[in-house]
Write a structure and sequence with these properties.
Elements (H helix, E strand, L loop, with lengths): L3 H21 L8 H12 L4 H11 L3 H8 L13 E6 L2 H5 L2 H12 L12 E6 L11 E3 L2 E3 L4 H12 L1
Parallel strand pairs: 1-2
Antiparallel strand pairs: 1-3, 3-4
Bound molecules: FE2/S2 (inorganic) cluster.
């Protein structure tokens, strides 16, 4: 019987194998950086520090150069995908109505920093610019549900309800 720690090891090495297979298909030409990152994002779902290191070795460029490019594009995620995705809007309207406090409360309750997934992989947390619903500011989107006029006091009950 495999315990959870062993299972997560196997999962991690499966992902690493996938990344290695992707890298095998590309030469060390630095122009391959974005296509490689796109393929890892598509097939593995995120760019872990280990994957970034593998890419940097393959292309013979620094890991910080890889991050420099990857962080420029919103399509790349750096945390393992969780079951539920939380987007906290920090566009101007949401920011002036307390978006920062909303984000901090999610971070505290989930024990994660923005851009990370919770340890149980139930929630990933990210900040976004305007979601196009400024009249409802401050706005949070969890999966496909929009939560308008968000207040810090509503966050705990919402998370409990989703956890079920
Ligand atoms: S600024 Fe948040 S929805 Fe527009």
């Amino acid at each position: 019987m495999i315990n959870m720690a062993e299972a997560s090891q196997i999962l991690a090495s499966d992902e690493t194998i996938k990344v290695m297979e992707i890298l095998k298909r590309y030469s060390s030409d630095k122009d391959n950086l974005i296509p490689i990152l796109q393929e890892i994002q598509k097939n593995v779902g995120y760019l872990s520090p280990d994957f970034v290191r593998l890419v940097s070795k393959h292309l013979k460029i620094s890991a910080s150069s890889v991050y420099g490019v990857a962080t420029f594009y919103t399509m790349f995620k750096f945390a393992k995908p969780a079951k539920h995705n939380i987007k906290v809007c920090l566009g101007t309207s949401c920011h002036v109505k307390g978006g920062d406090r909303i984000l901090e409360t999610f971070e505290r309750l989930l024990e994660v920093r923005c851009g990370e997934s919770s340890r149980d992989l139930m929630f990933s947390l990210e900040r976004v610019a305007c979601l196009g619903s400024c009249a409802l500011a401050p706005v949070v989107v969890i999966d496909d549900t929009i939560y308008g006029n968000m207040h810090v006091d509503r966050i705990k009950p919402i998370l409990s309800k989703i956890r079920g």
